[in-house]
Amino acid sequence: MNSSNNLLVLGVTGQVGKLVARNLRRSRANFSVGTRRKANLKELADQFGASRFIDLDDPRTFNEALKNITSIFLITGYTVDMLVQSKSLIDAAKRNGVNHIVHLGAFTRDHDAYATVFAWHQMIEAYLRDSGVAWTNLHPNMFMQSFLSVWSIKGGVYSAYTSKPVGFTALEDVAESCSRNSHGRAGKAQWKGLLVFGGRAYSASGG
């Protein structure tokens, strides 16, 4: 690991962000975790080594949080607020000399997708590509853990979507890709989902 790298990991109170931070900790990376709850700063610093206060809804917190940061792992909640949060953070990253942003997006085969979450991610990624900051966009399809936590079995079959194949990726694999790409492979998009040949589906991971 390059000791000159200093990463900021967002979303560590969620499943993916926590796994990213754990992977970076195991690899002895230089990183901090961000939180908007000041009461959590000490606990997170004890757990991961360093923490910083950052509130995605308050861009006034960005400059201090990004001091001496070289890369950001960007993950947000799924509301329309993610558009302003991501744009303002990308602007602050450029202003503060951040070299690289790894953005966790969502998988879709169609560029003209109109589902809100897909469209919002596409807008963020277009802005990131044009920002001048080096970028990596990761596109997992669906999370394997959703089998047990979200959807129920009906008649011995998992019923999530009925018209198209769905590619499931373990959260641990997504987190590993995020942590690896946090210090390299900029200017790249990675998809994790399904390839379909002759009516048969195969798991796939690629750039």
List the topology elements.
Blueprint: E1 7-9, H1 15-26, E2 31-35, H2 41-48, E3 51-53, H3 62-65, E4 71-74, H4 81-95, E5 100-104, H5 116-129, E6 134-140, E7 142-143, H6 146-149, E8 153-154, E9 157-158, E10 168-169, H7 171-181, E11 188-197, E12 200-206
Parallel strand pairs: 1-2, 1-4, 2-3, 4-5, 5-6, 6-11, 7-10
Antiparallel strand pairs: 8-9, 11-12
Concise synopsis of the structure shown:
The protein is α/β, with parallel strands linked by helices and 207 residues long.
Q: What is the approximate shape?
A: globular
CATH superfamily: NAD(P)-binding Rossmann-like Domain
CATH architecture: 3-Layer(aba) Sandwich
The tally of structural domains comes to 1
Assess the beta-strand content as a share of residues.
25-35%
The CATH topology is given as Rossmann fold
Description of the molecule:
Mean pLDDT is 79; it is low at 190-207. The chain is built from 7 helices and 12 strands. With 207 residues, the chain is of the alpha/beta class. It has helices spanning 15-26, 41-48, 62-65, 81-95, 116-129, 146-149, 171-181, and strands at residues 7-9, 31-35, 51-53, 71-74, 100-104, 134-140, 142-143, 153-154, 157-158, 168-169, 188-197, 200-206. 33% of the residues lie in helices and 25% in strands. It has a single domain (7-142, 170-192), classed as NAD(P)-binding Rossmann-like Domain (Rossmann fold).
